[in-house]
Write the structure tokens for this entry.
Amino acid sequence: MEQKRYGHFDDQHREYVITDPQTPWPWINYLGNEDFFSLISNTAGGYSFYKDAKFRRITRYRYNNVPMDNGGRYFYIKDGDTVWNPGWKPCKTPLDFYECRHGMSYTRITGRKNGVEASVLFFVPLKKWCEVQKLTLKNESAETKTLKLFSFEEWCLWNAATDMENFQRNFSTGEVEIEGSTIYHKTEYRERRNHYAFYHVNTEIQGFDTDRETFVGLYNEFADPQAVMEGKPRNSHAHGWSPIASHYIEVTLKPGESRDFVFLLGYIENEQDEKFSAPQVINKQKAHALIAELDTTEKVDKAFAELCEYWDSLLNIYKVQTGNDKLDRMVNIWNQYQCMVTFNFSRSASFFESGVGRGMGFRDSNQDLVGFVHQIPPRARQRIIDIASTQFPDGGCYHQYQPLTKRGNNDIGGGFNDDPCWLIFGTVAYIKETGDFSILDEMVPFDNQPGSEVTLFEHLKISMDHVIKNLGPHMLPLIGRADWNDCLNLNCFSWDPNESFQTTENVSEGTKAESLMIAGLFVVTGKDYVALCKKIGKTAEAERMQQAVDAMIEAVKKHGWDGEWYLRAYDFYGRKIGSNECEEAKIFIESQGWCTMAEIGAEEGMVAKSLDSCKKYLECEHGMVLNNPAFTKYIYEYGEISSYPEGYKENAGIFCHNNPWVIIGECLAGRGNDAWSHYAKILPSYVEEKYQTLHKVEPYVNCQMVAGKDAFKPGEGKNSWLTGTAAWMWYTVSEFILGIKPDYDGIRIDPCLPETASDYTVNRKFREAEYDITIHPNGQQKGVKAITLDGNPIDGTVIPYSPGKHTVEVTM
Ligand code: GLC
Ligand code: GLC
């Protein structure tokens, strides 16, 4: 079936261009790269926060509401009797032209109505705590236009959770100040807060509003606020209830004339003894200074140019040219961009995650690291230290931590037995990229307790030991609360709908529940750990761990193989999960991915059989499902996984995150055709071409889950943006398909390609070096025959690192 299209890629500008505001779901973008962040939809919906979407939410947003995507930064233009918004919403007045361009940390929304064009550029300038909204109004008609312009933002009273559950308090605490063209939001500033927000415009205003009820009207909506419909601001001053910020500006434009307005949504922190300039009056010095930095079009354009240069530099580190647009645009632009966004937001704030429930995941953040470590190594370094600081002395760890406090999240606790291994995964990736072994000597506390510090290396060691000390009856890792699959809750046993599978009692006494996913993960990260120990001269430790890895490999071969694929787990009672003997869910993807990546039993043919089974039982038109057949009933011993209807989420959904594991398994096995076909199925640019309507969510990034073959609507995507899929897709394509792999002593070249691949080049900056690499596949799927470095042949497949510019030719 031909699918309706809502937009297209513009690779030259690194933008996705949306041409119809009524996308099948809001298609969003993220603004901000450090500290100040915003989410913005293609109709200007969304919100802003400082560092933490729960504790420092600046503007309000209504999740899960009717209509969808409710609340945002809205500009109302009243032209005679017509009121419209450049982004179509919330008035939904039909526009003569609409376009939304989502770019690298900016969004530009343009609307035209009755001869007037309004174009708004939204971005967060580098290192500044504010969102810029540069609005350009242009009269394209033949007559002079007098327009009434209203801006609109609604303040969130900081803690997004109380805003939803304890609003009786909020109704009495809201406070604002108005000074010239700036509206200040200072709720709770009189007591313990040392921060406030402001909304400013760089022109004189003819009115304002700060009280929502007065501006909108109690029985009106964002679509028809009374003040706007009547063309009359009320100059309201909020006391309690729901404070907002709206500027009113009268604009007269001659034919052909255009005018810029710079709106600024800012966040300020003051020292305790400098909070007030007079009793009850907030100290506005820093706000004035910030405004002065961005109060003209020229200054804003300069800040925008700097942002664009910043993204140029980030995207200049790994550049591929294959001649296949769909591949190049994902590798060079969107996949790397999504990696940066997931690094910044972990799984906390999207249009599917409210920003209230989740902080930064321990395992998630470690995996996210491989997606951006090449771009901003210093921040990766800090992230590793932050994560490790939430570990417990026994190697276990908090499953999540809050970004603002960097403290472990007590509500969720720990006990996910895969978590510790990921620290090795992240750290090794960092050292290979940077060559910075000194991170291993950093002193890092346990559970953030001062005085408990040991070296980061020690944290890695206890991470490995945590697995070894928690083995089950088959000498396979005990699963704990869950492994990577949060929903495989083998020790939980819940009949109570009011308890969470993730936090309910974790029955560890008497458990025989073991995980083959952790077994594979342990072997993969264990090999890395051994190599690292050897590299830094810890030979005895390397030997000790090699033995543990070998023992694990034996345990998997002996107790983890089902004949055609790897088992998934043993349950509490020691019964097989993911076996041909099972009634449902006979095969799972996670253990196939990790055990093939670990190459366990490759000589015995296990790897090849497992990969074949993935093709046979898991693959469908839209990717590989998580398990097959899907569970059709709730299984008390398995937990949340079987709570989902068939084909969704962890019950046989295409959980995109784990597809790359099998793809890497394919690459290691040298099966380039298969690797590529799996990869292309979930590559957004391919999906974009065929399935915009069915897929529903943003076509420029991966989503967490696509409905699987057993679902009501296979191919429908959900939970977009914040997913480990981003980092795994990047890791897979950059290192295993295109084959450019950072290593301690240089760059290893080992592509795995479809037979049809043509010659391609990769420009890779690496530490102080830059490599221009040309690869001649010659119809081979795998196997490098010869490499020359600056014209001279080298031995092996690792280009030894040396600073400077180099040319590399690779023949397969
Ligand atoms: C979500 C979680 C991730 C987990 C996955 C599978 O993506 O963020 O930590 O591994 O679901 O359950
Ligand atoms: C997994 C799911 C996620 C869910 C979590 C806790 O991570 O993918 O959606 O919130 O488990 O149930």
The first strand starts at residue 7 and ends at 10. The chain has a mean pLDDT of 96. Residues 486-487, 501-502, 640, 649 surround alpha-D-glucopyranose (ligand 2) (CB under 6 Å).
